[in-house]
Amino acid sequence: MRNTPPPPTHNNLPLAKGDKRQTEMFEEEDSDTVEEIITVRPLPTPRLKQIQVHHAQRHVASPWCNGHADSGRLAAQPPDSKREEASFPPIIPLNVGGHIYMTRLSTLLKYSDSMLAAMFSGRHRIDRDNNGNYFLDSNGVIFSHILEFLRYGSLPDKENAFLVYRDAHYYGLHELVEKLALRPEIAAISVKEAHKSQFPNYTEVKEQVIRTAMANASINRVGDVNIYAFRKEFKAKAPSFSLKHTCVTEQADIAVGPWEAAADEETFIRCLENDLLEEGFIVRPHEAKRRCKYYNGQTCQKFLFKISISFD
Prior knowledge:
Helix content is 36%, strand content 14%. The protein has helices at residues 20-28, 47-60, 80-85, 105-108, 115-119, 140-152, 161-170, 174-181, 184-196, 202-216, 265-278, and strands at residues 9-10, 13-14, 91-96, 99-104, 134-136, 222-229, 254-256, 282-284, 290-291, 303-310. β3 and β4 (99-104) form a beta hairpin. α6 (140-152) crosses α7 (161-170) and α7 (161-170) runs antiparallel to α8. The longest helix has 15 residues, at 202-216. The relative contact order is 0.07.
């Protein structure tokens, strides 16, 4: 039995089937002694699969994989509220306007519908100071009364009642707001605010009165302010009445009205005077109304008030 020679090669590389030189060589040999050599090359990995592999590897490193980074499987991510809530320790260090407090997380979450509870529910990011305390930009002294209410249900003293009432509104502590609203010092403020809310743009009008009085006080340090206040618009009924007559309201520095509340113009002026007095201004009693003297078939119903502020 004869030995079978190795197939011819070129530069030590096997020739591909179908090569002309290989065909010529094969024809010289018997067909039963020739072995075809087929080179098998692996197919390239599709691009899509590579992308999927890299995508999975990127997520395997996620902290929500419960530490099994080599498992190749992602753990189901918990809802946002659960995920963030776990980041809050049971004991919360607080920096409230520079005052440091320590309290339980459950104390801050006591009233679930409050903004304070929402802040520490995990749905919001709370800034920290350099020492790692959770920071609240609020009055630190007053916040101690907030904590006392959350812990024991106790109410502040009379001197701090209004400031606690204000911050209780801010933090959405409706239970504390309702309790403080029945305290005499808070009830009086609420009535005053409701009284002033009857008149349009009350705060802006009061500020304008102060500025006008300051501007008019340059001579004798007393600023007179003429105010045209009208609850209802005046409508002339007589055909001979001239709307372009010389009216006393042309001397007005400020005009206020109309408004829908039952309070009349005199009530508005007294409210304004009392408010200025409580803020510390020296206000002289306002003069009686100066009525317009125009008459032509009908008397003009318009009039002025004068408020005088002394800056002595």
